């Protein structure tokens, strides 16, 4: 039985989406075709992804550039403005940024991607990109410092909590772009929520990695973070735990796409198709991600996704307001 019933996934995404380091894969055959992947996924995870991909496709060598989504996009856009980017594939935690690439005519249609068992809502209607994972944002806390865990976003506004809170910045993190963009669209929160957090001492790091490091080390008692980083840290023995806030969570799908000016479009498409395969989805679950392929179990210890409440979000409005969102956040928290 699927742990991601089709009705759940469709309703989840209808509600949610309506309205710099480089490494390469291992040795490859002399005749191998090479693709370059630009990504925001953690480097250790991508090394494992490339290794698994090459077990199935030893004839395709994968070069990698990895950084936060904002830096990935800045590099890509600068290269494109200069004439051409070496990137063939983009895999980032930001549907808004991917939509901008689509609107700019930078993406190649993925007409042959497998769709059986994949929720239609994670596939771009024009099939220029497709979500590869489900990632939610919630609250992490240090179990040695916190005796009464928060249960809601509103709990973070308490003065004693806010002064020991760290959150990721949308100036660096694509997931933070989606989370901040989602929260400011909620009537119960808006920009006043973030203004109050800043006034009461909350600070912004860079990406989600800076959040888990600060909370795990006890430098901060609370953090706003994507779930897999907190739950992976807990599984490895860090004194942290994670809360899915009762008001709901923001959600991203980590979309993947092939760039229109790729020098190896067929090899790039092969990488995209593999991302949606059962072995890749199982690997993703082992790395701590909710899968998008029906029939693949979520990571051990994760809740049934049908129990999660997802905050509604208008991604078109997020794209329109992206510059203002980042500027407003920087005014509040620096950047």
TrEMBL record:
Pfam families: SBP_bac_1. Keywords: Iron, Metal-binding, Periplasm, Signal. InterPro entries: Ferric-bd, SBP. SUPFAM superfamilies: Periplasmic binding protein-like II. The keyword Iron applies. Fe cation binds at residue 228. It comes from the Bacteria. Residues 1-32 form the signal peptide. GO terms for molecular function: metal ion binding. PANTHER family: SLL0237 PROTEIN, THIAMINE-BINDING PERIPLASMIC PROTEIN-RELATED. This is Iron(III) transport system substrate-binding protein.
């Amino acid at each position: 039985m699927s742990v991601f019933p089709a009705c759940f996934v469709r309703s989840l995404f209808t509600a949610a989406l309506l309205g710099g380091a480089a490494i390469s894969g291992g040795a490859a055959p002399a005749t191998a075709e090479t693709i370059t992947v630009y990504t925001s996924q953690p480097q250790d995870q991508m090394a494992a992804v490339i290794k698994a991909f090459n077990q199935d496709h030893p004839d395709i060598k994968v070069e990698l550039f990895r950084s936060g989504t904002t830096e990935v996009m800045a590099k890509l856009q600068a290269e494109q403005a200069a004439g051409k980017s070496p990137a063939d594939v983009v895999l980032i935690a930001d549907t808004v940024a991917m939509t901008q690439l689509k609107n700019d005519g930078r993406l190649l249609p993925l007409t042959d991607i497998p769709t059986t068992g994949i929720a239609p809502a994670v596939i771009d209607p024009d099939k220029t990109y497709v979500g590869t994972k489900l990632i939610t944002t919630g609250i992490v806390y240090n179990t040695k410092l916190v005796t009464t865990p928060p249960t809601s976003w509103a709990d973070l506004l308490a003065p004693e909590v806010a002064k020991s809170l760290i959150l990721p910045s949308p100036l660096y993190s694509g997931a933070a772009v989606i989370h901040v963009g989602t929260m400011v669209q909620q009537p119960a929160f808006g920009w006043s929520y973030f203004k109050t957090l800043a006034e009461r001492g909350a600070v912004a790091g860079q990406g989600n990695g800076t959040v888990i490091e600060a909370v795990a080390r006890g430098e901060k008692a609370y953090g706003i973070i994507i779930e897999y980083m907190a739950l992976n840290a807990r599984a490895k023995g860090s004194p942290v735990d994670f809360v899915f806030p009762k008001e709901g969570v923001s959600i991203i799908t980590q979309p993947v796409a092939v760039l229109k000016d790729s020098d190896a479009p067929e090899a790039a498409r092969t990488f995209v198709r593999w991302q949606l395969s059962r072995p890749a989805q199982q690997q993703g679950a082992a790395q701590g991600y909710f899968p998008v392929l029906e029939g693949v179990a979520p990571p051990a210890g994760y809740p049934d996704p049908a129990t999660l409440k997802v905050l509604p979000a208008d991604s078109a409005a997020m794209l329109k307001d992206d510059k203002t969102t980042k500027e407003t956040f920087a005014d509040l928290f620096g950047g």
